[in-house]
Amino acid sequence: MESKKNRIPKLPVYSCLFITLVTVLYEALLHLWVANTLVPGRFVAVLAFAGGFGGILGFLVSLITNKKAQKWVTFALTLILAVLYLMEYFIEDAYQTYMTLNTVIGGAGGVATGFLDVVVNLLGRNLWRIGLFLLPPAAYLLLADPRIISWKRRGVLAGAVAVCYLLGFFVVHQFTVDAARFTTAYSFDSAVRSLGLNMALGLETVRGSGSVQEEPGFVIETIPTEPTQQTEPDVSDPTAPTEIVYADNVMDIDFAALAETTRDYSQKAIHSYVASVKPTKQNAYTGIFEGKNLIFITAEAFTAEVIDPELTPTLYRLANEGIKFTDYYQPAWGASTTSGEFSNLVGLVPANGGGCMFEPVQQDMFLLIGKQLQKLGYSSAAYHNNDYTFYERQSTHIHLGYDKYIGYGNGMEEGVTGVWPQSDLEMVDFTLPQHLGEQPFSLYYMSVSGHSVYAVNQNAMSAKNYDKVKDLPYSEAVKCYLACNLELEYALESMVRQLEEAGIADDTVIVIAPDHYPYGLEKSSTWGNNLDCLSELYGVKCDNRYVREHSALIIWSGSIEDMDLQVDTPVYSLDILPTISNLFGVEYDSRLLIGRDVFSDAEPLVLWPDHSWKTEKGTFDTDTGVFTPAEGVEVSESYIQRIKTLVANKITYSQSVQYYDYFHFLKKAITQE
User: Fold this and answer.
1) E strand or H helix at 164, and its extent?
2) For residues 424 and 430, what is the distance between their CA atoms, to the nearest angstrom?
3) Partners of 293 in beta bridges
4) Regarding beta strands 328-329 and 550-551, do their DSSP bridges make them parallel or antiparallel, or are they unpaired?
5) What is the pLDDT of residues 502-532, one digit of tens each?
6) How high does pLDDT run on average in the chain?
7) What is the distance between the alpha carbons of residues 362 and 654, in angstroms, rounded to a whole number?
8) Residue 453 preceded by cis peptide, ω within 30
9) Distance of CA 604 to the CA centre of its chain
10) How far apart (Å, rounded) are the C-alpha atoms in residues 632 and 564?
């Protein structure tokens, strides 16, 4: 029998107070480790909300009057909190954004199997952080002697919880620019940064339940668009050329009438909003790609800095002899690759984290370019050279408008070597010849060769192409990034050559857009970067979204190489679908898409999920609440408020489409007419 002398002494502990303090500690550490700049008001609010949340957990624990049961429940809760906060820290370190639990759970299987070595290395480099977070629950389990509190003290605890939340809300509204994070400017990532993880999880839970989505909050009477200059024909001169009157890009849908007849309030609100949107017009470029083949590529971690006349001559040719975009952005939508794919293909702001790609499964997104061309009789296929089940693509991609989906594991392994990451060149050479004789065709490729980690010993494509970049004046990580992107260059070189040899280069359109910026080059323990390699690649400090997420869009066809087509206005991924829909001359309704056809008369606008934005006149950052005008430009406060409202409406519409299966109801309404 163990003697009393050998027992570890137990300390009297109020479990409710312990779990409250631990919650505040975890929230403080997460905020301090991640925040680039410590904003005092924001930090106070984060701690206050953490105190409130911890107090709620503590109150619930205090209701357990069995000391042994209370001890184990308290230990379990603090351990769960430790794992949760560590997980979000590691996610932010890797992807530079916080992710919802749905997104994490949805991608967990792929991460565990495809990136096990990265995970192991990450944990090894952060043992001290892990130990710091696990110390409180371990110490509590070994040393604590729980004390049961009275109802009087429970009442004091409940009052303290109320004070914490009141303080948090007061500080947010009076001393920060974050009040809109609760409502109109909510995004999970921005909520974690400005309100704390505990508050963000609560908001996400409430929003996910639909309880705050009963009445979509559109503001439609105060957002007139900028007047456009109209050229009046000279009717006094009979020889003057007749002005071309272009039709609107709309479908035969009376949204006002639908709003009048529907009984569903949410659908009525969306119908009314869409009816208020000014459609874009067709233009001189409408239908210039009509009947042509389409090859759409979402390029893994691609960015404009890869394009070089000597290192990547095919990419350079496609970017400079197609439609040139000088101010293109791929915002970080919050779920890495899958939300980037969604924005490129669906043309809406992703509203459901990693689950956004299931929208085409749940409702007929009939405006997708794949579906539009499929209806016209195009043969079609979607391809991916990594695990075919990653992000559940085996369930989602067949619904994007493609007759089949092939990835590694359900057919791609017959032509692609099983290394990490797999070769884009091998994927193109294996799949493209199958379609050259069955025009018109519509193909979609999700590439993988450009994926991090950017190191010779962890990236097969970096190792394969390293000799081509070894003498470049960059750090090892940047060299390896450029080396693995050479595989995309070689894939495109082969693709263009095959198209030209088949005599169909002029009859084929290639669209290339990134899924996200190369976050694997950020200073990060996940990717093993001790330096800010992203800034090194860009040649400028990547300290804001407007630099970091500036990228490249390529739209090329052999038929336009002799045309001088350049777009200098701000463009982003949500503009891709309306632009190529117009260029292919398919019937679509511009009011149902967030972006614009870049050749239309629509006002240029790029928005981010946290309601930041950019126009030709300047940028607005919700993190600081500051509008920065473009050089030599002056704008009124009414202009800023108008764009804020426009952005809020577009994001609300995107969310409403996904929360309420709007296209499902719309398709039914159209069919019943």
Assistant:
1) helix 151-175
2) 10
3) 508
4) antiparallel
5) 999 999 999 999 999 999 999 888 777 878 9
6) 91
7) 15
8) yes
9) 20
10) 28
